[in-house]
C-alpha cells in the first residue's frame, strides 16, 4: 500500500472503484509524465449527486458532489499509476463544471469541495491551478463534473 493510500485510509476515506466511461472516450491518457483524466461526475458509493445548484441542491451539497468527483479522479489516477499513488508528483490543473441555475454564482465555492480534498489528501502536491465554470446542464443531470491533469514520476 502506498503512503498516500495509507494516509487516505487513516482519514477514513475510501477510494471508489474507478468509474467506467459512459460514452466513447477513455478514462485517462498518459503522455510522458503527464496524466490527463477525463471528466469524473458526481457518482459516488452512496448514490449519484444529481440536480442543479441554486435549485435542487445547496452549496454544501454541491461541495460534497465536487468531493465525490475528486475521489473518482484519485481512483482513476491510481489505475493510471499502475496502482501506486506515490508516483504522483503534482496535481497540475482541475477543470470543474457545475450544473447551476442561472442566478447561482458560488461556483468557485462548490469546486472547493474537490480542491480541498486534493490538498487534504496530498498536501503540497495537491495544490493546483483551476477553472470553475457554471453550466446549464451536465450529462445525465449530474451536479458536478471535474477533469484533471496530473504529473507523475516516469516509469
Give your account of this protein's structure:
With 155 residues, the chain is an alpha+beta fold. It has one domain: RutC-like (60s Ribosomal Protein L30, Chain: A, 2-Layer Sandwich), CATH 3.30.1330.40. Helix content is 30%, strand content 28%. It is built from three helices and seven strands, in the order αββββαβαββ. It has helices at residues 3-10, 59-80, 107-122, and strands spanning 28-31, 34-41, 43-44, 47-48, 88-99, 129-135, 144-152. A five-stranded mixed beta sheet has the order 1-2-7-5-6. α3 links the parallel β5 and β6. α2 (59-80) packs across α3 (107-122). The radius of gyration is 15 Å and the shape is globular. The two termini are 18 Å apart. The model has no long low-confidence stretch (mean pLDDT 95).
Overall shape: it is: globular
**What is the CATH H-level superfamily?**
RutC-like
Taken together, the total number of domains comes to 1
Looking at the structure, the CATH topology is 60s Ribosomal Protein L30, Chain: A
InterPro entries: Endoribo_LPSP/chorism_mut-like, RutC-like_sf
Domain Endoribonuclease L-PSP/chorismate mutase-like: 5-136
Protein name: Endoribonuclease L-PSP/chorismate mutase-like domain-containing protein
Pfam families: YjgF_endoribonc
